[in-house]
């Protein structure tokens, strides 16, 4: 997989089936690294140095000097390393929530078209057709912002793997659920199945990718509340589950997010690559500490694209949920990191969190009301009912962490008003998770609001491949209506919830189809385009067993800045 890329470097992440030396060759540039081992699995990260800004080079991978990539007779164009060009327009492709499928008509009818595969097929075709060997407007980077894998909603091949593995491997008295991933070996297979589709594998090898986890990477509603944590910890399988989930996330997703400097300073990287056998115990100790002491590690990461700043914000592991009256979405270190990173003197400030910051009004006030009730606003007797509703209805997004929502909103006001440097052209929130997509436009509320012209907007793209069943779509449609927003706002005010520092409304959407979005940043200009692949059920049913090749169509386009 092609991961972190700068103006002069490109990181290639590799998993191998045995310890070896990994070499990446690109033109006359070479990078070499020995594998490190975790629970019997072998990985390497090769940093290609010496690239020129905007330079594109085909590359290959060798294991112990034997060529293994590109694969012989591959139908895909060569994989390419492309260094960042900060002077060029930046095209950031983003989305969340992808269930791997076999792309058959049955799978498409249940989950929709896999938009990651659809984009891979289109990019491959564009590269074949381009005289230079590269499409002129392909993504600068791919931002996968949550639920890259579903550890608690597995597909048939993964169920078969779990049954076979657990039949021959003692579980040590853990008694794991039959249909959920628990151990590191199982997570490794979950990632293999999610990313080994040939088209997906090629896409990840040739487009720089940055990632964030959400709940299903670990478990549905992960860290919803203190009560949730106490209840889940009663299960014997929870400690190996969260340890394996966070450890595998660090290896498969987080490691590749790190710049060379950040990687060199990461204690986990230093420990695993110091040599000396299997690092499974090291990774397990780190992962358990990251769970039990969330302040011990900051998972968020920052990236600069031209004069724009992208902040990939952890909204899951760093949470402080011990006290319902003092909840924090980001925890102490995460809050300080985000506050220090939110400054002006950039063209665009982009905050990507797996959870939308600005939800439709009805959902926002429902979650804010619920947090207040759980904290005792309507008396002690109502707190238990509030917690039950919180868990059953997944009321655990940004507005369910009122102090954090208010703090970030005030910081956005300050940035837009020029209080932290020259105001950016836009402050943009990217989000996923909710399984519908939309654009919401926002502005500071009340007198003294910023007059700098900074655009504030929420861009949501979800799901990539896991669309909502019809009943859930109808429920979300009702939740997004204005009358629902008015009712929930009244409830929230009766529970003592104050009006937020920002006001916003939906400008486009919601859409419930699978989609990927492209955010284009070109100087002070910003625009966004959502794309989907319409499904024609009758056509799918007429060709049993056919794996269709989807076509990508525009869903909506909006210019964000004047």
From TrEMBL:
Stored Pfam families: DUF7800 (PF25077), PhoD (PF09423)
Annotated DUF7800 domain residues: 1-80
Residue ranges occupied by any PhoD-like phosphatase metallophosphatase domain in the UniProt entry: 137-465
Top-level taxon in the UniProt lineage: Bacteria
Transmembrane segments: none
InterPro entries: DUF7800, Metallo-depent_PP-like, PhoD-like_MPP, PhoD-like_sf
Coiled-coil segments: none
Signal peptide: none
Name the UniProt record assigns to this protein: PhoD-like phosphatase
